[in-house]
Amino acid sequence: MGRFLLRRAINYVVLVFLAATLTYFIAASALEPIVNYLQKHPQPPIHTIHNLLQAQNLDPDTPVAVRYWRWLTHVLHGDFGRTYTGDSVSSEMGRRIFVSTELLFLATLLSAVSGVAFGAWNALRQYRPSDQASTVISYGILATPIVVIAVTLQTVDNWFGSPIEYIGMYDPNAHGAVAIVLSNMQHLILPTLTLWLLQVTLFSRFQRSTMLDVLGADFLRTARAKGLTVRQAVIKHGLRTAVIPVMPLLVYNIILLFTGATFTETVFAWHGMGEWLISSIQNNDVNATAAIGVFTAGLVLVAGLISDMVYAALDPRVRA
Q1: pLDDT tens, 56-100?
Q2: 89-319 to CATH, choices 1.10.3370.10, 3.40.630.30, 3.40.50.2030, 1.10.3720.10
Q3: What SS3 class is residue 85?
Protein backbone atom coordinates (compact mmCIF):
# COMPACT_ATOMS: atom_id res chain seq x y z
CA MET A 1 0.00 0.00 0.00
CA GLY A 2 2.73 2.44 1.02
CA ARG A 3 4.91 1.62 -1.99
CA PHE A 4 1.90 1.94 -4.28
CA LEU A 5 1.09 5.42 -2.96
CA LEU A 6 4.77 6.44 -3.11
CA ARG A 7 5.00 5.49 -6.79
CA ARG A 8 1.81 7.39 -7.55
CA ALA A 9 3.05 10.42 -5.58
CA ILE A 10 6.29 10.53 -7.61
CA ASN A 11 4.31 10.39 -10.84
CA TYR A 12 2.03 13.19 -9.67
CA VAL A 13 4.99 15.38 -8.63
CA VAL A 14 6.50 15.04 -12.11
CA LEU A 15 3.16 15.90 -13.69
CA VAL A 16 2.79 18.95 -11.41
CA PHE A 17 6.24 20.18 -12.46
CA LEU A 18 5.43 19.73 -16.16
CA ALA A 19 2.03 21.41 -15.78
CA ALA A 20 3.52 24.36 -13.88
CA THR A 21 6.27 24.75 -16.47
CA LEU A 22 3.82 24.64 -19.37
CA THR A 23 1.52 27.14 -17.65
CA TYR A 24 4.35 29.62 -17.14
CA PHE A 25 5.56 29.40 -20.76
CA ILE A 26 2.02 29.85 -22.08
CA ALA A 27 1.32 32.79 -19.75
CA ALA A 28 4.68 34.45 -20.44
CA SER A 29 4.23 34.06 -24.20
CA ALA A 30 0.54 34.96 -24.53
CA LEU A 31 0.14 37.73 -21.95
CA GLU A 32 1.63 41.19 -22.42
CA PRO A 33 2.15 42.96 -19.08
CA ILE A 34 3.76 45.92 -20.85
CA VAL A 35 0.26 46.91 -22.01
CA ASN A 36 -0.67 47.81 -18.41
CA TYR A 37 1.94 50.58 -18.50
CA LEU A 38 1.41 51.70 -22.08
CA GLN A 39 -2.29 52.35 -21.32
CA LYS A 40 -1.55 54.69 -18.44
CA HIS A 41 -2.15 58.42 -18.80
CA PRO A 42 0.32 60.00 -18.75
CA GLN A 43 2.37 57.11 -20.10
CA PRO A 44 5.72 56.57 -18.31
CA PRO A 45 8.91 56.76 -20.38
CA ILE A 46 9.62 53.52 -22.22
CA HIS A 47 12.92 52.94 -20.39
CA THR A 48 11.11 53.32 -17.06
CA ILE A 49 8.53 50.76 -18.16
CA HIS A 50 11.24 48.26 -19.06
CA ASN A 51 12.99 48.85 -15.73
CA LEU A 52 9.75 48.16 -13.85
CA LEU A 53 9.10 45.03 -15.88
CA GLN A 54 12.67 43.88 -15.40
CA ALA A 55 12.27 44.24 -11.62
CA GLN A 56 9.20 41.99 -11.81
CA ASN A 57 10.88 39.49 -14.19
CA LEU A 58 8.36 40.41 -16.91
CA ASP A 59 10.47 42.32 -19.44
CA PRO A 60 9.58 41.00 -22.94
CA ASP A 61 13.15 41.81 -24.09
CA THR A 62 14.42 39.07 -21.76
CA PRO A 63 14.18 35.54 -23.28
CA VAL A 64 11.32 33.48 -21.90
CA ALA A 65 13.67 30.68 -20.85
CA VAL A 66 15.70 33.10 -18.72
CA ARG A 67 12.55 34.51 -17.13
CA TYR A 68 11.31 30.99 -16.46
CA TRP A 69 14.51 29.99 -14.69
CA ARG A 70 14.39 33.07 -12.46
CA TRP A 71 10.72 32.41 -11.72
CA LEU A 72 11.32 28.73 -10.91
CA THR A 73 14.23 29.59 -8.61
CA HIS A 74 12.07 31.99 -6.63
CA VAL A 75 9.10 29.59 -6.56
CA LEU A 76 11.26 26.87 -5.02
CA HIS A 77 11.91 29.35 -2.20
CA GLY A 78 8.18 30.10 -1.81
CA ASP A 79 8.19 33.39 -3.71
CA PHE A 80 5.76 33.63 -6.65
CA GLY A 81 6.76 37.19 -7.49
CA ARG A 82 4.59 40.31 -7.67
CA THR A 83 1.22 41.00 -9.21
CA TYR A 84 0.77 43.71 -11.85
CA THR A 85 -0.14 46.11 -9.02
CA GLY A 86 3.06 45.33 -7.10
CA ASP A 87 1.48 43.18 -4.36
CA SER A 88 2.90 39.84 -3.26
CA VAL A 89 1.43 36.97 -5.29
CA SER A 90 1.97 34.56 -2.38
CA SER A 91 0.03 36.78 0.05
CA GLU A 92 -2.79 37.36 -2.41
CA MET A 93 -3.02 33.66 -3.18
CA GLY A 94 -3.19 32.80 0.52
CA ARG A 95 -6.05 35.23 1.05
CA ARG A 96 -7.98 33.97 -1.95
CA ILE A 97 -7.49 30.31 -1.01
CA PHE A 98 -9.16 31.11 2.32
CA VAL A 99 -12.08 32.79 0.53
CA SER A 100 -12.55 29.84 -1.84
CA THR A 101 -12.28 27.35 1.00
CA GLU A 102 -15.00 29.10 2.97
CA LEU A 103 -17.27 29.21 -0.06
CA LEU A 104 -16.68 25.67 -1.29
CA PHE A 105 -16.31 23.57 1.87
CA LEU A 106 -19.98 23.30 2.79
CA ALA A 107 -21.16 23.03 -0.84
CA THR A 108 -18.77 20.19 -1.70
CA LEU A 109 -19.45 18.29 1.50
CA LEU A 110 -23.21 18.46 1.03
CA SER A 111 -22.91 17.62 -2.67
CA ALA A 112 -20.85 14.50 -2.08
CA VAL A 113 -23.04 13.06 0.68
CA SER A 114 -26.40 13.94 -0.84
CA GLY A 115 -25.30 13.00 -4.38
CA VAL A 116 -24.35 9.47 -3.34
CA ALA A 117 -27.53 9.12 -1.27
CA PHE A 118 -29.84 10.41 -4.01
CA GLY A 119 -28.18 8.26 -6.66
CA ALA A 120 -28.50 5.08 -4.61
CA TRP A 121 -32.10 5.89 -3.68
CA ASN A 122 -33.10 6.52 -7.30
CA ALA A 123 -31.46 3.26 -8.37
CA LEU A 124 -33.54 1.34 -5.84
CA ARG A 125 -36.66 3.04 -7.20
CA GLN A 126 -35.81 2.60 -10.89
CA TYR A 127 -38.55 3.68 -13.32
CA ARG A 128 -40.86 4.79 -10.54
CA PRO A 129 -42.37 8.30 -10.80
CA SER A 130 -39.81 9.74 -8.36
CA ASP A 131 -36.93 8.31 -10.41
CA GLN A 132 -38.36 9.57 -13.68
CA ALA A 133 -38.97 13.03 -12.24
CA SER A 134 -35.44 13.08 -10.84
CA THR A 135 -34.06 12.15 -14.27
CA VAL A 136 -35.89 14.99 -16.01
CA ILE A 137 -34.85 17.54 -13.38
CA SER A 138 -31.25 16.31 -13.40
CA TYR A 139 -30.82 16.63 -17.16
CA GLY A 140 -32.44 20.05 -17.02
CA ILE A 141 -29.94 21.24 -14.40
CA LEU A 142 -26.95 19.69 -16.18
CA ALA A 143 -27.98 21.39 -19.43
CA THR A 144 -28.20 24.79 -17.73
CA PRO A 145 -25.01 26.91 -17.50
CA ILE A 146 -24.06 27.59 -13.90
CA VAL A 147 -24.20 31.33 -14.61
CA VAL A 148 -27.90 30.96 -15.45
CA ILE A 149 -28.50 28.98 -12.26
CA ALA A 150 -26.79 31.65 -10.15
CA VAL A 151 -28.64 34.54 -11.80
CA THR A 152 -31.95 32.66 -11.52
CA LEU A 153 -31.49 32.22 -7.77
CA GLN A 154 -30.67 35.91 -7.46
CA THR A 155 -33.80 36.80 -9.47
CA VAL A 156 -36.02 34.61 -7.31
CA ASP A 157 -34.54 36.20 -4.21
CA ASN A 158 -35.28 39.66 -5.63
CA TRP A 159 -38.89 38.66 -6.38
CA PHE A 160 -39.41 38.08 -2.67
CA GLY A 161 -37.90 41.42 -1.69
CA SER A 162 -34.29 40.20 -1.33
CA PRO A 163 -34.61 38.48 2.07
CA ILE A 164 -31.21 36.84 1.48
CA GLU A 165 -28.15 39.04 0.90
CA TYR A 166 -25.70 37.46 -1.52
CA ILE A 167 -23.17 39.96 -2.92
CA GLY A 168 -19.73 39.63 -1.34
CA MET A 169 -18.62 37.70 1.72
CA TYR A 170 -20.57 39.84 4.17
CA ASP A 171 -22.33 43.16 4.54
CA PRO A 172 -19.67 45.91 4.77
CA ASN A 173 -22.01 47.79 7.12
CA ALA A 174 -21.99 44.94 9.64
CA HIS A 175 -20.10 45.80 12.83
CA GLY A 176 -18.92 43.43 15.49
CA ALA A 177 -17.77 39.82 15.25
CA VAL A 178 -21.25 38.33 15.74
CA ALA A 179 -22.86 40.57 13.12
CA ILE A 180 -20.12 39.81 10.60
CA VAL A 181 -20.39 36.05 11.16
CA LEU A 182 -24.19 36.11 10.78
CA SER A 183 -23.91 38.25 7.65
CA ASN A 184 -21.26 35.90 6.26
CA MET A 185 -23.53 32.89 6.83
CA GLN A 186 -26.37 34.63 4.99
CA HIS A 187 -24.12 35.51 2.05
CA LEU A 188 -23.11 31.85 1.78
CA ILE A 189 -26.63 30.57 1.13
CA LEU A 190 -27.16 31.35 -2.56
CA PRO A 191 -23.64 30.57 -3.86
CA THR A 192 -23.62 27.35 -1.84
CA LEU A 193 -27.00 26.41 -3.29
CA THR A 194 -25.74 27.18 -6.81
CA LEU A 195 -22.72 24.90 -6.46
CA TRP A 196 -24.75 22.22 -4.68
CA LEU A 197 -27.40 22.01 -7.41
CA LEU A 198 -24.87 21.30 -10.13
CA GLN A 199 -22.62 18.98 -8.14
CA VAL A 200 -25.34 16.89 -6.51
CA THR A 201 -26.97 16.34 -9.89
CA LEU A 202 -23.72 15.16 -11.46
CA PHE A 203 -22.80 12.88 -8.57
CA SER A 204 -26.28 11.36 -8.24
CA ARG A 205 -26.46 10.42 -11.93
CA PHE A 206 -23.14 8.59 -11.79
CA GLN A 207 -24.05 6.93 -8.49
CA ARG A 208 -27.40 5.77 -9.86
CA SER A 209 -25.70 4.18 -12.87
CA THR A 210 -23.10 2.28 -10.84
CA MET A 211 -25.72 1.25 -8.28
CA LEU A 212 -27.89 -0.29 -10.99
CA ASP A 213 -24.93 -2.40 -12.11
CA VAL A 214 -24.40 -3.64 -8.56
CA LEU A 215 -28.05 -4.49 -7.86
CA GLY A 216 -27.92 -7.30 -10.40
CA ALA A 217 -24.59 -8.71 -9.20
CA ASP A 218 -24.22 -12.28 -7.93
CA PHE A 219 -22.73 -11.29 -4.58
CA LEU A 220 -25.81 -9.24 -3.73
CA ARG A 221 -28.10 -12.18 -4.52
CA THR A 222 -25.87 -14.36 -2.34
CA ALA A 223 -26.22 -11.88 0.52
CA ARG A 224 -30.00 -12.00 0.13
CA ALA A 225 -29.92 -15.81 0.11
CA LYS A 226 -28.07 -15.76 3.45
CA GLY A 227 -31.03 -14.00 5.04
CA LEU A 228 -30.20 -10.29 4.69
CA THR A 229 -33.02 -7.95 3.77
CA VAL A 230 -32.77 -5.85 0.64
CA ARG A 231 -31.87 -2.79 2.69
CA GLN A 232 -29.20 -4.64 4.70
CA ALA A 233 -27.66 -6.19 1.59
CA VAL A 234 -27.59 -2.90 -0.29
CA ILE A 235 -26.15 -0.84 2.58
CA LYS A 236 -23.65 -3.44 3.80
CA HIS A 237 -22.42 -4.79 0.46
CA GLY A 238 -23.96 -2.99 -2.52
CA LEU A 239 -23.34 0.67 -1.69
CA ARG A 240 -19.68 0.17 -0.82
CA THR A 241 -19.07 -1.56 -4.14
CA ALA A 242 -21.15 0.90 -6.16
CA VAL A 243 -19.41 3.95 -4.74
CA ILE A 244 -15.91 2.77 -5.78
CA PRO A 245 -16.13 3.90 -9.46
CA VAL A 246 -17.66 7.21 -8.34
CA MET A 247 -14.92 8.09 -5.84
CA PRO A 248 -12.39 9.48 -8.37
CA LEU A 249 -15.11 11.70 -9.82
CA LEU A 250 -16.13 12.87 -6.34
CA VAL A 251 -12.61 13.62 -5.20
CA TYR A 252 -11.40 15.37 -8.38
CA ASN A 253 -14.56 17.49 -8.65
CA ILE A 254 -14.41 18.49 -5.00
CA ILE A 255 -10.69 19.38 -5.01
CA LEU A 256 -10.57 21.07 -8.42
CA LEU A 257 -13.64 23.14 -7.63
CA PHE A 258 -11.23 25.51 -5.83
CA THR A 259 -10.27 26.98 -9.18
CA GLY A 260 -13.33 25.79 -11.09
CA ALA A 261 -15.96 27.92 -9.34
CA THR A 262 -15.01 30.83 -11.58
CA PHE A 263 -18.48 31.94 -12.62
CA THR A 264 -20.04 31.41 -9.20
CA GLU A 265 -17.38 33.53 -7.51
CA THR A 266 -17.72 36.22 -10.18
CA VAL A 267 -21.53 36.40 -10.08
CA PHE A 268 -21.66 36.54 -6.29
CA ALA A 269 -18.55 38.78 -5.95
CA TRP A 270 -16.53 36.30 -3.93
CA HIS A 271 -12.90 37.16 -4.62
CA GLY A 272 -11.50 33.64 -4.57
CA MET A 273 -9.14 31.65 -6.76
CA GLY A 274 -11.57 31.17 -9.64
CA GLU A 275 -12.34 34.87 -9.91
CA TRP A 276 -8.63 35.66 -9.60
CA LEU A 277 -7.83 33.48 -12.62
CA ILE A 278 -10.14 35.53 -14.85
CA SER A 279 -8.92 38.89 -13.56
CA SER A 280 -5.26 37.84 -13.87
CA ILE A 281 -5.65 36.91 -17.51
CA GLN A 282 -7.59 40.10 -18.23
CA ASN A 283 -4.85 42.18 -16.60
CA ASN A 284 -1.96 40.36 -18.34
CA ASP A 285 -0.68 39.28 -14.93
CA VAL A 286 1.88 36.60 -15.77
CA ASN A 287 3.06 35.87 -12.22
CA ALA A 288 -0.46 35.52 -10.82
CA THR A 289 -1.58 33.33 -13.71
CA ALA A 290 1.46 31.09 -13.31
CA ALA A 291 0.88 30.85 -9.56
CA ILE A 292 -2.72 29.77 -10.13
CA GLY A 293 -1.42 27.14 -12.56
CA VAL A 294 0.95 25.79 -9.91
CA PHE A 295 -1.85 25.78 -7.34
CA THR A 296 -4.20 23.95 -9.72
CA ALA A 297 -1.52 21.39 -10.55
CA GLY A 298 -0.97 20.90 -6.83
CA LEU A 299 -4.68 20.31 -6.39
CA VAL A 300 -4.51 17.58 -9.03
CA LEU A 301 -1.69 15.94 -7.04
CA VAL A 302 -3.69 16.11 -3.81
CA ALA A 303 -6.85 14.88 -5.52
CA GLY A 304 -4.99 11.99 -7.11
CA LEU A 305 -3.45 10.87 -3.84
CA ILE A 306 -6.73 11.15 -1.93
CA SER A 307 -8.53 9.28 -4.70
CA ASP A 308 -5.94 6.49 -4.60
CA MET A 309 -6.17 6.24 -0.80
CA VAL A 310 -9.96 6.12 -0.81
CA TYR A 311 -9.98 3.65 -3.68
CA ALA A 312 -7.51 1.40 -1.83
CA ALA A 313 -9.56 1.64 1.38
CA LEU A 314 -12.75 0.57 -0.43
CA ASP A 315 -11.22 -2.04 -2.75
CA PRO A 316 -8.90 -4.62 -1.10
CA ARG A 317 -7.60 -5.71 -4.52
CA VAL A 318 -5.75 -2.39 -4.86
CA ARG A 319 -3.97 -2.91 -1.53
CA ALA A 320 -2.84 -6.35 -2.71
Answers
A1: 888 888 899 999 999 999 888 888 888 888 888 989 998 888 888
A2: 1.10.3720.10
A3: coil
